[in-house]
């Protein structure tokens, strides 16, 4: 029997740990079991029991205190994640060999982990070798997305993770309860958006022709990306993307 994993990603403070804690409650109410692995070596606390915690392997604080390394918080985190990637046997032992497991990986918020560093992809490949079916869950704070240009930026971050990991990915807007009444009224537009008409709505904001051209080029890039995803056969990811863009 395969095992299942969600890689829970997103910028700092987007709600990853809250999502994991909420999913545990949700699974419990369905009488199903789900386990969480904390992969944030700088985590201070979380509201869920963990089956494994990367801090047992390495902690950012220890790396920063090591005078020979001279890392700050971000460099320290990258060092920890690279150390983790070189020690996947620790994870293998922590996961054990329980069939039919469902595991959430609560990841750190440094966006570079999902854009150009190889560690998350290495993790995905390793999990797949251990016969996990892996999907990505990318969280973005909805408060930063209810304006067209911020929305494009959030979508690009999610897209980077999709391109980098090449796994089915669900993109989630979090903290909807904190939206202003006005933003709540407008949210439908962002759940099923038409990027080109959004640009028209904001023509006042786009003062520079060059900026408008750049925005159009980004929309076109996403449209082409969708096509190329179909070509390489990753249809599930392309369908997720189409939930964000009415292309
Ligand atoms: N109101 C509200 N607050 C939320 C929601 N999701 C998360 N929060 C709050 O947002 C803050 C950050 O949430 P976390 O779950 O710690 O975010 P994170 O992505 O794990 O953060 P890092 O691990 O530091 O990157 C906490 O104070 C949460 O209580 C939500 O849906 N609604
Ligand atoms: Mg967290």
Description:
InterPro entries: Gpn, Gpn3, P-loop_NTPase. With 247 residues, the chain is α/β, with parallel strands linked by helices. The protein has one domain (3-179): Rossmann fold, CATH 3.40.50.300. It is 51% helix and 14% strand. The protein is built from eleven helices and six strands. It has helices at 16-29, 60-65, 73-85, 88-95, 112-115, 119-129, 148-165, 181-191, 195-201, 209-232, 235-244; strands spanning 3-9, 35-38, 52-53, 102-106, 132-141, 169-174. Strands 3-2-4-1-5-6 form a six-stranded parallel sheet, with helices on both faces. Mean pLDDT is 83; it is low at 227-235 and 237-247. Guanosine-5'-triphosphate binds next to helix 1.
Q: How many H/I helical runs?
A: 11
Return the CATH class.
Answer: Alpha Beta
Q: How do the helices and strands follow one another from N- to C-terminus?
A: EHEEHHHEHHEHEHHHH
> CATH superfamily, please?
P-loop containing nucleotide triphosphate hydrolases
Low-confidence stretches: 227-235, 237-247
Taking the sheet with the most strands, its summary is:
6 strands, parallel
Adjacency order of strands in the biggest sheet = 3-2-4-1-5-6
Number of strands: 6
CATH architecture: 3-Layer(aba) Sandwich
What proportion of the residues is helical, as a percent range?
40-55%
Mean pLDDT reading = 83
Rg computed from alpha carbons, rounded to a whole number of angstroms = 19 Å
Principal-axes geometry comes out as globular
N-to-C terminal Cα separation, in Å? 37 Å
Class computed from helices, strands and strand pairing: alpha/beta
What molecules are bound to this protein? guanosine-5'-triphosphate, magnesium ion
Beta-strand content = 5-15%
Domain count: 1
CATH topology: Rossmann fold
């Amino acid at each position: 029997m395969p095992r299942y994993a969600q890689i829970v990603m997103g910028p700092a403070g987007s709600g990853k740990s809250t999502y994991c804690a909420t999913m545990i409650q949700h699974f419990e109410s369905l009488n199903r079991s789900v386990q969480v692995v904390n992969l944030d070596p700088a985590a201070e606390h979380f509201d869920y029991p963990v089956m494994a915690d990367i801090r047992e392997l390495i902690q950012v604080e220890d790396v920063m205190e090591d005078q020979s390394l001279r890392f700050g918080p971000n460099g320290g985190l990258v060092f920890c994640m690279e150390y983790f990637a070189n020690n996947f046997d620790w994870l293998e032992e922590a996961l054990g060999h329980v069939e039919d497991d469902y595991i959430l990986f609560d990841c750190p918020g440094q966006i570079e982990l999902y854009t150009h560093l190889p560690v998350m992809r290495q993790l995905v490949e390793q999990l797949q070798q251990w016969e996990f079916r892996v999907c990505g869950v990318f969280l973005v704070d909805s408060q930063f997305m209810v304006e067209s240009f911020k929305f494009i930026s959030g979508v690009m971050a999610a897209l980077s993770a999709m391109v980098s990991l090449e796994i089915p990915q669900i993109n989630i807007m979090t903290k909807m309860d904190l939206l202003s009444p006005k933003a709540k009224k407008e949210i439908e537009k962002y759940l099923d958006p038409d990027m080109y008409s959004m640009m028209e709505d904001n023509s006042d904001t786009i003062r520079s022709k060059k900026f408008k051209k750049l925005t159009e080029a980004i929309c076109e890039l996403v449209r082409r990306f969708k096509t190329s995803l179909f070509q390489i056969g990753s249809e599930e990811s392309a369908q997720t993307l189409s939930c964000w863009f009415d292309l």
